[in-house]
Amino acid sequence: MHLGVCSWSLCPEGPQDLIEKVGATELSAVQLALDPVRTSWGEDSIGRIREAGIEVLSAMMMMEAEDYSTLESIRVTGGVRPDDNWQRNLDCAAENASIAAAAGIGLVSFHAGFIPHDHDDPERDKMIERLAIIARVFNDAGCRVALETGQETARTLLSVLEAMSLPDVGVNFDPANMILYGMGDPVAALDQLAPHVFQLHVKDALPSSNPQEWGSEEPVGAGAVDWAAFFQVLRDRGISADLVIEREAGSQRVEDVIRARQLIEQYCQETNR
Question: 0.70 exceeded by the pTM?
Answer without folding.
Answer: yes
